[in-house]
Design a protein that fits this description.
Oligomer: single chain
Structural class: alpha+beta
Largest sheet: 4 strands, antiparallel
Strand order of the largest sheet: 1-2-3-4
């Protein structure tokens, strides 16, 4: 959200608290943020008045930047030689928040800049192109009003001995972060629970509870995020944590009868982000990626099919980014 700091002073604007801590004053002539904190070494030379140079970014990060230009054409425009033009209110907002966004990532300057363009472009869509703040105060009375129409049935449910307001389901955590059938002999046991607030005098709430090795995975991610000011976030930790959350959500849908479980033998899944990262950023070959993900099939036909799955997984990752960003765009 962008608001004028002084209606009489057209040379200054203030960027509201979106993804940064505190307000930032920007000089529209200089397009520089007047906050403490410098850009990572080598990044400043890639930034023009309202342009950024992503020519040296890897294909992985360049593709993410291209998706932003594709989805937000009014604010980001790709020019020749991977020069990106930033337009409208997005330009000063991006430049102001860039030092915070880029802090702590162990990436090459162009890769980091491209990744920030994607993440901040995604955030720009979430806040309706800067037209609304990201945080809305939730008043207690407003939340309590949502009990209307269910409060009496909720009371009767407990008075009639309707059972506990929630349930646990048992699983085993696989090495890739997905959930498998429960085994009492496996130390990587996981409990997934869904519980509801039973106090009708307070706001209604539902809590998803994760216990065991899956929780440890998320704790690792949380610690990585908190220390990111000192070092980069480990890619493998991020990928496994995303797999854990995806598996937990899938399990909840199955147990709540919102989704049917897979029939027959479950198909092996590939981590599409890791595949795209290895191919387009690390520039690994298909056999190298296949060997890193699992044992490379010896049979030529099986090997070709596995390579096709790897290439398809990469395509699916970028398509998922497009789909997710498109879903965030404000309705015109």
């Amino acid at each position: 959200m962008v608001r004028r700091s002084d209606p009489k002073d057209k040379q200054k604007i203030v960027v509201a608290r979106d993804i940064v801590a505190g307000d930032i004053t920007i000089d529209l002539n200089e397009r520089k943020a007047s906050r403490i904190g410098d850009l990572p070494p080598g990044m400043e030379k890639l930034i023009g008045k309202e342009t950024i140079d992503l020519g040296n970014a890897s294909l992985f990060y360049q593709t993410k930047a291209e998706i932003v230009a594709e989805m937000l054409p009014d604010f980001v425009e790709k020019r020749a030689d991977s020069i990106y033009q930033l337009n409208g209110a997005f330009a000063p907002w991006f430049l102001a928040n860039l030092p915070v966004c880029a802090r702590g990532f162990d990436l090459q300057p162009a890769d980091c800049l491209a990744d920030c363009l994607f993440r901040m472009g995604e955030h720009w869509a979430k806040i309706d192109y800067g037209e609304r703040p990201t945080h809305f105060p939730l008043h207690e009375q407003l939340l309590q009003d949502t009990w209307s129409g269910i409060e009496e049935r909720w009371k009767l449910f407990f008075q009639s001995g309707g059972g506990p307001a929630g349930e646990y389901w048992l699983h085993t955590l696989r090495k890739d972060g997905s959930l498998g059938p429960w085994s009492d002999s496996n130390p990587r046991q996981v409990r997934i629970g869904l519980f509801f607030n039973t106090d009708v005098n307070g706001p209604p709430s539902a809590v998803v509870r994760i216990e065991g090795e899956a929780a440890v995975t998320l704790m690792r991610l949380w610690m990585e995020l908190k220390r990111s000011a000192e070092g980069g976030i480990d890619q493998q930790v991020r990928v496994i944590a995303e797999t854990v959350l995806t598996s937990v959500l899938h399990d909840l849908k199955v147990n709540l009868k919102l989704k049917h479980p897979s029939k027959g033998r479950p198909a092996a899944t590939l981590d599409s982000e890791l595949v795209a990262y290895l191919l387009d950023h690390k520039k690994k070959t298909l056999p190298q990626v296949a060997s890193q993900l699992s044992q490379l099939p010896r049979d030529p036909i099986e090997r070709k099919l596995y390579f096709d799955r790897i290439k398809k997984a990469k395509i699916n990752f970028y398509e998922r980014l497009r789909k997710n960003l498109r879903a965030l765009l404000p309705v015109k």
